[in-house]
Amino acid sequence: MENITLYRRRLIPDEIVHLKNDIVLYYDDTVIITKWKTIKPRKDMDHGFSAYMLKEGIKVSKFYRADNSLLYWYCDIVDYEYNSETNSYTSTDLLTDVVLYPDGQVRVLDLDELAEASVKDLITKEQLHSALVRTNKLLNVMYKNEFRKYTDLIDKYDK
Hints:
Distance between the termini: 20 Å
Strand content: 35-45%
Low-confidence stretches: none
Shape: globular
Radius of gyration: 15 Å
Number of strands: 9
Structural class: alpha+beta
Mean pLDDT: 95
């Protein structure tokens, strides 16, 4: 498997982080599966796995506590950009997040940040539209109990 480089771009605050310690377990033109440790040590979360859904504009992550118990599934709404010269992907966080807890509770986060980014022209009208449409599609997947299509991708590498 040829090495790929991953970056995460945040809009608030404006930063790009090289995910140099993430380990790519699998990738093709539709998905990248990684395992990782938290960049900054945290008491509530320690490590996890992510599935970069390249065609869907979402990143689904499985977050674990230090004792290896499941904290939650965390879904970022993102844009992906591929650079063929460097064989790298940059995922731009479009701010809206959806969390699925082990008890089935669903929580949508950071719609206020999405609104702020729109007002401050940190995102385009098209990105705002994409973020809202992708969030809606993801919520519908969860409400229809079809989220396993994402969890199964990660679970086969989470051994």
